Amino acid sequence: MRKLRKAVIPVAGLGTRFLPATKAQPKEMLPLVDTPVIQYVVEEAIRAGVESLVLVTGRGKAAIENHFDVAFELEDTLRRRGKAEDLALVQGISHLAQFAYVRQGEPLGLGHAVLCARHAVGDEPFALLLGDDVFDERDSGLETLIAAHEATGMSVVGVQEVPLEHVSRYGIVNAPTESTDRWNVTTIVEKPDPSVAPSRWAVVGRYVLEARVFEHLAALEPGVGGEYQLTDALAALAREGRLVAAPIPAKRYDTGNKLDYLKANVEFALKRDDLRADFTEYLKELCKSL
Fold first, then answer.
1. Rounded CA gap, 263 and 266, in Å?
2. Strands of the chain, DSSP E
3. Is 77 helix (H, G, I), strand (E, B) or coil?
4. Using an 8 Å Cβ cutoff, are 26 and 15 in contact?
5. 0.70 exceeded by the pTM?
């Protein structure tokens, strides 16, 4: 089996849920404390052994490319001012991995965004990481899916159980028939009504996919709003008996809505040695005053 070397990260979305902040900057550049969300996603892929990253971009996303590129003027200024620690931090970002960028000319859905990466990926298996979900680096995220792919040779979706009232936000797969670390997907439904959902097992933005998925994506017909849904291509893989679900044990931070994004910022700050004590004291005093 070929080693998984590449990952695709779609970053072409408009970020309308975070307007007006995302009117002139990509939603993926919104920070968790002082680090953009997209950097956490990239670093997760690298920890899992990914060597090459394909970012699917769109209009107004130049800030993402600039973030992972060399910043000569900034580096020169930091060097002249003797800020060695800041210089090392900035230089480290531009040396994280090999980056390639492809453009999605129109916002035609996640399936179309993934298809745009077809020629950059080739005929290799690849990881797919969505930026709305960030996972705690202290536990296994993408690594879990890679292990399941290596064990089965199949495409894998990462799943976690969500409350029943939240299933309409996600793609939902069938439940396992017994306690297990992976199971065959026979049903996958995009944002079902809770009353007819096949389970509470939600696909949470991490995948390992065979290159065959591109054939299914290319054959899709546009759905609601003219968009091409990745879930429809995954359903085709499931019908072929080529799709597996693997639970992700790592804690997930949903940065795709405002309330959960704010919660994530608080928790990420509390994990920081340089902020934990003062921030904890501030939160205690704030709670007393409410």
1. 5
2. 6-10, 31-32, 35-36, 52-57, 98-103, 126-129, 133-135, 155-161, 171-173, 183-184, 188-190, 201-209, 243-247, 252-254
3. helix
4. yes
5. yes
